[in-house]
Amino acid sequence: MAKDLMTPLQRLTAYSQGKPIDRLPCVPIVGNTAARVIGVKVSELPNSGKLLAQAQIAAYRRFGYDIIRIFTDLYGQAEAMGSVVYYPEDETAYLAKPALDDISQIDSLKPADPYKDGHLPIHLEAMKIAVDEVGNEVAVTGALTGPFTNASFLIGAENLARLVAKNPEAVHRLCRLSLETCLNYAKAIIDIGCTPSLTDPMSSATIISPQKFKEFSFSYLQQLIDYIHARGKSVTLHICGKTAKVWEQMADAGADCISIDNAASLTEAKNKVGNRLRLMGNVKPSETMLQGTPADIRLAVLSGVREAYDNPKGYIVASGCSLPTETPFSNIDAMLDAVREIGYPITAEKLSRLEQRWSQ
């Protein structure tokens, strides 16, 4: 099996500059699977910056992928603003109670201080440890929840949906407060030496219309991205589900790379916005990465590469979203091994030969 000839930072830098590389960048989006790498329970990670860093560094070293993402769940910012998050013993956390029962309580909300509130200081500690230990060879990113999604965690998704229709100014107030927290956290992440990685699932066209995206999500994302750019960092933006109807808005907001969910088409994204930004995705996290075989993973990687390797702004092989915790290590290995065997440069003829061999 082919071996890596470059570090992740060398690879991503050369790729961005149009210089020779050994293979395409590859990011199986490892979240709480990292707990399995070091043999601890998922609930232990959010409570220890050292353990969280240890898990993500160990996962990076075990699999050899190209970006570390310090992440446990999407609720950190909302929790720091007063929402209640439940941490099961060995499963991913979930929102137990929004910060507000009713929008009339909004004056009680304040932007979070990432150095003091909730679990954010623990995540920052983990980022600092990771940067110090492996930041000279791999990019370390910190997960940052988008303003509209964070707003939904402050009031509850159903309440937010009602407010969108009946009280849009209240939604904007929630988004403005969320943006302040996002900007505070983005500053802290960048000050440590990391890059914010944006996730905004509630902005999906599966949930809100493109018109509502424009009204309630776009300007806040744009302001956040503008700040990150002003600090010299590029931005990868992930929105779950069907996003084709908002790809152009995601590009207009300033995203340098969009992470494509498996519900969307890489070919369509390439044709629509591939001349404006890099694409990343979109192997199915559950159906393929969790439940498939290594052979399934190799063919899924090949399919994505065939669709997007010639994207004008580049392509990163990745899962369509964060991997389920119990994703087999052999399947993550298969994703990286497939990318290594495909190598670079890539031709249609080479992909056809590999498909014939891998399909047998």
Automatic annotation (TrEMBL):
Family annotation (CDD domains): URO-D_like
Keywords for this protein: Lyase
Claim: Heme is one of the keywords in the record: no
The UniProt record lists the keyword Lyase: yes
A Pfam family annotated for this UniProt entry: URO-D
Domain of life of the organism encoding this protein: Bacteria
GO molecular function, one term: uroporphyrinogen decarboxylase activity
All residue ranges annotated as the Uroporphyrinogen decarboxylase (URO-D) domain in the record: 8-341
Enzyme class: lyase
EC number: 4.1.1.37
Name of the protein in its database record: Uroporphyrinogen decarboxylase
Organism the protein comes from: Sporomusa acidovorans (strain ATCC 49682 / DSM 3132 / Mol)
Origin organism lineage: Bacteria, Bacillati, Bacillota, Negativicutes, Selenomonadales
